[in-house]
Design a protein that fits this description.
43% of the residues lie in helices and 7% in strands. The chain contains 16 helices and seven strands. It has helices at residues 5-14, 20-23, 35-39, 45-55, 58-81, 103-106, 113-125, 130-143, 148-158, 164-175, 187-194, 241-252, 294-299, 304-317, 328-337, 377-384; strands at 101-102, 234-235, 268-271, 287-292, 321-325, 345-348, 359-361. The strands form two sheets. Strands 5-4-3-6-7 form a five-stranded parallel sheet. The chain has a two-stranded antiparallel sheet with strand order 1-2. Helix 5 packs across helix 10, helix 8 packs across helix 10 (164-175) and helix 9 runs antiparallel to helix 10.
């Protein structure tokens, strides 16, 4: 799925946003699939919006910008709430019965054709249309009544555009732990937006009946369910981030970091999976290091396939890049000992870089003026609208 920076810019320049707002909820709508590049800090949201604004009137791009602002809103919540994004943010998840992910979700055997196909696509390509993410999360959380966090971790691990804020807070929105109500959809809704015509499923019912589509009011699985789920409903999905890093290192034959290849007279630009900006300090001579921290991946595991995608995107677009597998403090010890003095280190602000030491630079924000915590996206967006140009 990785594109060169030049190819991606060509896509941005040729994209017409005028159909985005009216079609984005449809799986064949005018969406861009740029989220893996924006999440990686590879493609600047400012560049995207300035390019679209230079070619189209406000009514053509405003819907696209609003959806881009959702990502920034989630990032601002993460900045303020930290690890609380991994807990029920406003209220406890209601009607929870299962403690782990349902087997039928993990194995793409729910019987809902559009959802099962989407899960297979997630495993194969690492990408999901946003509406399908919502469908999977609502089926997992509000129909199977499973705890939202195991499902959110499972989906996060397979997404090429993995972003803790966007992923975990979106799941919380669906679960109703950060919003006023739970999100649900029936088979008619799924058929409409996925261009399917399936009928007779456990979701083929009125909205009032969805809360009991799988479990009755006593928490027992209903006997009328037609799907043959021969395995237990609960499925543990925990991953070992450190083992995954080691497997990646062996699979790629990654050599140990070589401090001898560094020019100790130059500054250090530290990249990570949320900052792969190929234009960052590109005109300057610098030591360029992609930092893959075991502590981060122990907390937010992703698959080998996803890590491989990060490495491929970085190495093919950032010249002279070295890869360091270890924590930031260990990296500083390695590069500091090469010159026996504190190195000049540049990095970009991000919740995952709060422990970095050096010269922190701002990442690209569409609305840098709108900071802090807002209890809802629409309160945040109302503030952002004041800065629209």
């Amino acid at each position: 799925m990785n594109l060169s920076y030049a190819s991606l810019l060509n896509q941005v320049k040729s994209y017409d946003p005028s159909r985005y707002h009216s079609t984005r909820n449809y799986t064949n709508g005018a969406v861009t699939a740029w989220s893996p590049y924006i999440s990686r800090g590879f493609l600047s949201p400012i560049l995207v919006m300035e390019t679209l604004k230079s070619k189209y009137p406000k009514q053509a791009w405003i819907g696209f910008m609003q959806q881009m602002a959702w990502r920034e809103y989630f990032q601002r919540v993460w900045q303020e709430k930290g690890d609380l994004i991994l807990q029920d943010l406003k209220s406890a998840q209601s009607n929870k019965i299962l403690q782990q992910a349902p087997h039928a979700i993990i194995n793409a055997s729910t019987g809902i054709q559009a959802i099962d196909a989407a899960i297979c696509q997630l495993y194969e390509k690492g990408y999901l249309h946003n509406h399908l993410r919502m469908y999977i999360a609502m089926l997992h959380t509000n129909i199977f009544k499973a705890a939202w966090l195991p499902g959110a971790k499972w989906m996060y691990a397979h997404l090429l555009d993995h972003d803790p804020a966007a992923n975990f807070l979106s799941w919380q929105w669906v679960a109703g732990t950060s919003s006023s109500k739970q999100y649900v959809a029936n088979q008619e809704n799924i058929n409409k937006y996925t261009n399917t015509k399936q009928a007779g499923t456990f979701l083929d019912t009125e909205y009032e009946q969805l809360s009991e589509a799988i479990f009755d009011l006593n928490g027992a699985a209903k006997k009328s369910i037609k799907e043959d789920w021969s395995q237990p409903l609960d499925q543990v999905t925990e991953m070992d981030g450190i083992q995954i890093l080691e497997a990646l290192k062996q699979a790629n034959g990654l050599a140990n970091f070589n401090a001898g290849m560094l020019d100790t007279n130059l500054p250090y630009c530290i990249y990570n999976s949320f900052n792969l900006d190929p234009l960052w300090h590109a005109a300057e001579k610098a030591n360029r290091i992609l930092l893959l921290e075991p502590s981060h991946y122990a907390k937010f595991p992703v698959t080998v396939k996803v890590l491989q995608s990060i490495i491929d995107l970085a190495v093919s677009n950032i010249e002279g890049l070295q890869i360091f597998i270890g924590n930031f403090e260990t990296l500083i010890q390695n590069i500091g000992s090469a010159k026996n003095q504190a190195p000049v280190v540049y990095f970009k602000e991000h919740p995952t870089t709060a422990h970095y030491q050096g010269i922190q630079e701002q990442r690209d924000w569409l609305f840098p003026e709108v900071r802090g915590y807002y209890p809802s996206f629409f309160a945040y967006w109302k503030k952002c609208e004041k800065y629209l140009k």
